[in-house]
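Appendix B, example 12.
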Amino acid sequence: VGAGQKKSKVKFGYSAESDKGPYPIPWKVKIEGGKNATGDRHAIIVHRDECKLYELYNLRHKDGRWRAGSGAIWDLNSNKLRPKGWTSADAAGLPILPGLARFSEVRRGVIDHALRFTVSETRAKFIYPARHYASDSNNNNLPPMGLRLRLQKSFRIKSFPKQARVVLKALKRYGMIVADNGSDWYIGGAPNAHWNNDALHKLGDVTGSHFVVVDTSDLRP
């Protein structure tokens, strides 16, 4: 959106951990899964003139006003994180947009950042760069929010289709970060009509045993 987009107040379910706004929500904003979706219903809005990212979880328009589970506003000129213990539109308290695979990146042949992914169960713990957890389990076999995995350097990718190879190269160099509870090993991507779903489905041939855990214990905000 640009400077002409009207901003609206949003009523949050997790108001104590949400940025108050207001948020520049277009009336025909694209919501994850579509208008009648029952899932996370994320909405991602980039304000070009402000250079800010607005992200919302479980966004709905009801009784004449916008409502959401949570919301976060990110200054794209800053690396500042959420306050410790705060969620965002994602359970780990991270921004969603920077972790998405985008077709424009695949078209140029390079994804130059880590990717976001989900697992069905996480531990009641978070590690850098995450700021929040969403679990009541202390099972050490479960990953904490913010855990970074990297595809093993020795994993052979030549037989994969081109779009899948670009994703796999990024997973070798930058890895992927546990960002939310959801489907196991689900990597998030921005919708685009030019994605080749048959090619992307070949990523299912990669298993957890092909990854290593990256030690990020020395990293600090």
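The CA atoms of residues 1 and 31 lie 15 Å apart. DSSP finds three helices and eleven strands in the chain.
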